[in-house]
């Protein structure tokens, strides 16, 4: 590696049902990141865009359109798709290009706009991210696939639907402190258990919502960041992994191999262990996913992630805060933006911009984001400077 890589700026739109076009959302987030970095568009040498369903808002080939709107049409842009994990995979590509010395300063924008299509069409579109021949094409939507995973987990570890509920309650509590979160509402165990069943055992409050939104970051060399003189966060570990795409092809569906592979690479590169992580933003598309993630990331032994949520260990003020932003569950899940939104949270936490939801005394943080049921995943480790 030639360069140390930093996040010098970050910006985000609100997440939710939004009226702006996909390009307006991407531009808002990009301008926020550029302003917070203290640079101008002319400093940007390449643009990376993560997006899955641009076609739903009549705009694909989004990178050149965004670059043109920023007044830098000659800057090369690249759009990257990796389902719900698109943001973190894009971050990894942007990171790798800066680390390798191709560029000193690049822009990464994650963006999605789907809510105007309605729940039925969004569910169908999202199912195209599964192994469609085996899964989506036979009616297995993502709530259905994660319901199978949840059922297997509850059976294997004698966990309960209440354990799942505690994940939702905690993430809604955190989201209440996040002005950009999609669903800002305090909920109880009864609210979760009595909410309508989506795919048993998952109920409405076990699911993330469909969201629109955009998040953006400026990645640069540490030398460039020092020259600009603004606060920045160091990226110290990066890993990517894969799993058999169809859930039916996995030996054990209560674990996600891509997470373990990506995390081990990122920990090794950063020279840290799970014990060194002060907080993490993880992929909680459904409550069961957060429980499996925090076990696969090495924070808890297999079968104990639910107990951790129930006992408050993963609360913002707990031993290992998980999803202080509110996570996908409350902050929302605009799928192309989610992985970058996690990095925005780390940047805000480490540069004193997280306000009421600040995690006390945090120095090292991790982001984890996967595509589909974990067919692809990326993990990054960050250090406060
Ligand atoms: C849970 C789900 C079925 C709800 O869909 P829906 O019933 O059509 O919901 P609507 O969009 O009509 O919203 C109705 C209300 O419920 C709320 N709501 C919607 N989804 C919610 C969720 N997941 N959690 C909490 N509240 C939710 C909305 O904010 C809205 O509230 P309001 O009336 O106060 O504005 C849908 O959000 C879903 O399928 N989520 C999973 C998305 C997914 O699979 N993502 C990919 C992950 S891999």
Structure commentary:
The model has no long low-confidence stretch (mean pLDDT 98). With 385 residues, this protein is an alpha/beta fold. α3 crosses α13 and α6 (161-176) packs across α10 (287-296). The two termini are 20 Å apart. It is built from 13 helices and eleven strands. Helices cover 36% and strands 18% of the residues. The protein has helices at residues 22-37, 62-69, 86-99, 118-127, 142-157, 161-176, 189-194, 222-228, 257-270, 287-296, 305-310, 327-330, 338-350, and strands spanning 5-12, 46-50, 77-80, 105-112, 197-199, 202-203, 213-221, 233-242, 279-281, 364-371, 376-384. The strands form two sheets. The protein has a nine-stranded mixed beta sheet with strand order 3-2-4-7-1-8-11-10-9, sandwiched between helices. Strands 5-6 form a two-stranded antiparallel ribbon. Residues 84, 119, 123, 126, 142-143, 183, 198, 204-205, 207-210, 285, 333 line the site of coenzyme A. Coenzyme A (COA) binds next to α4 and α5.
Main sheet summary: 9 strands, mixed
Order of helices and strands: EHEHEHEHHHHEEEHEHEHHHHEE
Global mean pLDDT: 98
Q: In total, how many beta strands?
A: 11
- Ligand inventory: coenzyme A
Note the beta-strand portion: 15-25%
CA radius of gyration is 19 Å
Which term fits the overall shape?
Answer: globular
Number of helices: 13
Which structural class do you get from the secondary structure elements? Answer: alpha/beta
Catalogue the unreliable spans.
Answer: none
Order of strands across the main sheet: 3-2-4-7-1-8-11-10-9
């Amino acid at each position: 590696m030639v360069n140390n890589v930093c996040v010098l700026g970050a910006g985000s739109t609100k997440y939710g049902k939004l009226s702006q076009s996909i390009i307006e959302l991407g531009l808002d987030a990009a301008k926020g990141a550029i302003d917070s970095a203290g640079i101008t568009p002319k400093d940007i040498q390449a643009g990376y865009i993560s997006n899955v369903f641009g076609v739903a808002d009549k705009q694909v080939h989004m990178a050149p359109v965004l670059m043109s709107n920023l007044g830098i049409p000659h800057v090369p842009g690249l759009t990257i798709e990796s389902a719900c994990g698109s943001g973190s995979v894009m971050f990894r590509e942007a990171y790798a290009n800066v680390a390798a010395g191709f560029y000193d300063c690049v822009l990464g924008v994650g963006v999605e706009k789907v809510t105007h299509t309605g729940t039925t069409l969004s569910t169908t579109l999202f199912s195209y991210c599964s192994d469609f021949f085996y899964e989506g094409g036979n009616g297995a939507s993502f709530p259905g696939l994660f319901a199978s995973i949840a059922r297997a987990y509850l059976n294997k570890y004698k966990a309960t639907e209440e354990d799942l509920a505690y994940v939702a309650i905690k993430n809604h509590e955190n989201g209440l402190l996040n002005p950009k979160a999609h669903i800002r509402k305090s909920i109880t165990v009864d609210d979760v258990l009595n909410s309508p069943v989506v795919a048993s055992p998952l109920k409405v409050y076990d699911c993330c919502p469909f969201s629109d939104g955009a998040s953006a970051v400026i990645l640069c060399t540490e030398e460039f960041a020092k020259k600009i003189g603004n606060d920045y966060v160091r990226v110290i570990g990066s890993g990517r992994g894969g799993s058999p795409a169809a859930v039916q092809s996995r030996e054990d569906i209560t674990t996600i191999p891509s997470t373990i592979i990506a995390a081990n690479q990122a920990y090794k590169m950063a020279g840290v262990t799970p014990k060194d992580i002060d907080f993490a933003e993880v992929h909680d598309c459904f409550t069961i996913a957060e429980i499996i993630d925090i076990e696969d990331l090495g924070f808890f032994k297999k079968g104990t992630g639910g107990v951790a949520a129930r006992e408050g260990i993963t609360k913002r003020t707990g031993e290992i805060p998980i999803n202080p932003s509110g996570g996908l569950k409350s902050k929302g899940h605009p799928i192309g933006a989610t992985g970058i939104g996690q990095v925005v949270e780390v940047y805000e936490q480490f540069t004193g911009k997280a306000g009421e939801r600040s995690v006390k005394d945090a120095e090292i943080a991790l982001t984890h984001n996967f595509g589909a049921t974990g067919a692809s995943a990326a993990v990054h480790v960050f250090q406060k400077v």
